[in-house]
Design goal:
Layout (H helix, E strand, L loop, with lengths): L26 H22 L6 H10 L3 E11 L5 E8 L2 E6 L2 E7 L6 E6 L2 E9 L4 E6 L3 H18 L6 E3 L8 E3 H7 L5 E6 L2 H10 L5 E6 L8 E6 L3 E6 H7 L3 E7 L1 E2 L3 H15 L3 E2 L3 H5 L10 E2 L1 H11 L14 H5 L9 E2 L3 E4 L4 E4 L1
Parallel strand pairs: 9-19, 16-17
Antiparallel strand pairs: 1-2, 1-7, 2-3, 3-4, 5-6, 6-7, 8-20, 10-11, 10-14, 11-12, 12-13, 14-19, 15-18
Helix pairs in contact: 1-3
């Protein structure tokens, strides 16, 4: 089977025109250069947003949705805050604010209804993105008129592309500024080996998040069998141990999960992963929940198959069984926070950017 596409293998498309190249040019030459850059962008944009049919093709298409088309240091203001100079990326689906080279805030331009507004009729140094159905606004301020024009044109093309292409969503405030996918997209894309991260509404879970400086306190593994249309979630429960449930039943039974985040396993041999994960789950299914001080102090691995696990330890063992994590490090050293950050996997495998699953119940209404 074809290998899943790696984000790191997708070439970045940056349409930025260097200001120093424009100093000695006439206004007509500058305008022609901008038009040439826009033509290149339009061709790439049209090619990369074509509709795909199969779930894997659809995911690869979405991965291309993370392709960078514009990037730079820009002054940005969100709602009533103050302007702050930030590293901003514009992909063909999202506006991304970075901190320490990591995605910090993400605005999904494909699904959120917005108007792009030129604040000054005689200048494009200040642009307003008005998410009018959510009463949220973003201001982008540029020091250079040409740079502002390029950003405005790229944003305008995204606005026009998705205006009637996807049904616009009005979402709960907790999803605004997050990198989210709809529940239907998640169910289409999910494959064996992908992981889920959870934020639980329970005081012990809150203590764990504080202790580990994490947004998540639980982690699970996805299995998808060809004979099942629905996916299966494998995790460790305190009172049951290693267990699995179909997705719809899992949601009904586990009502304390406030947020669920999805990370896709990329750049792997899907057939090999399917076989190894199934073998591993067959060996550990039914093993009890186990968490004690001896495990937490353990530094060296004690083998792949234990008599008991806690949630993130199980995922680490499964990934070791697939040759995705080093064998020597103790699996008990992996916590939910470990799987929420950049995690260096072996054999060129990697996990996608975390994507919050926009559950159907969290959509206020559709436009």
């Amino acid at each position: 089977m074809q290998r899943s596409q790696s984000f790191s293998e997708i070439q970045s498309l940056n349409n930025q025109v260097k200001i120093e190249d424009l100093v000695q040019q006439s206004p007509n030459q500058i305008e022609n250069q901008i038009k040439q850059q826009q033509y290149i962008f339009q061709a790439s944009f049209a090619n990369q947003t074509q509709i795909c049919n199969t779930p894997l093709e659809k995911y690869n298409n979405s991965a291309l949705g993370n392709t960078i088309i514009k990037q730079g240091l820009i002054y940005i203001k969100i709602n009533t805050g103050s302007f702050k100079k930030s590293n901003i990326q514009l992909t063909i689906e999202k506006l991304v604010i970075l901190e320490d080279k990591q995605w910090f805030m993400v605005f999904n331009l494909k699904y959120l209804a917005f108007n792009l507004i030129q604040c000054n009729k005689n200048s494009l140094r200040l642009i307003k993105i008005d998410f009018y159905k959510m009463n949220k606004v973003i201001f982008l301020r540029f020091n250079d008129e040409i740079e502002g024009k390029l950003w405005f044109q790229c944003l305008k093309m995204i606005e026009d592309k998705f205006k009637n292409f996807y049904q616009k969503l009005v979402i709960k405030d907790m999803y605004f500024g997050t990198n989210f996918v709809t529940q239907n997209e998640f169910l289409d894309w999910a494959e064996t080996g992908d992981i889920l991260l959870f934020e639980t509404d329970h005081y012990l879970a809150k203590l764990q998040r504080v202790f580990t400086s994490s947004n998540f306190d639980h982690v699970g593994l996805i299995i998808r069998k060809q004979e099942h249309k629905e996916i299966i979630i494998v995790d460790v429960k305190n009172n049951i141990g290693v267990d699995f449930e179909f997705w719809s039943f899992f949601l009904k039974q586990n009502t304390q999960f406030k947020k669920i985040c999805y990370r896709k396993l990329l750049n792997i041999d899907r057939g090999y992963i399917n076989q190894r994960i199934q073998e591993f789950i067959d060996k550990v299914y039914g093993q009890e929940f186990q968490l004690n001080i001896m495990k937490l102090l353990q530094q060296q691995s004690d083998g792949l198959i234990n008599k008991g696990y806690f949630c993130s330890e199980l995922i680490a063992k499964a990934y070791k069984y697939c040759q995705l994590l080093p064998q020597k490090k103790a699996s008990s050293q992996y916590w939910p926070v470990t799987f929420s950050k950049q995690l260096k996997l072996q054999n060129k495998a990697e996990l996608s950017q975390p994507m919050m699953i926009l559950l159907d119940n969290d959509i206020n209404y559709q436009l």
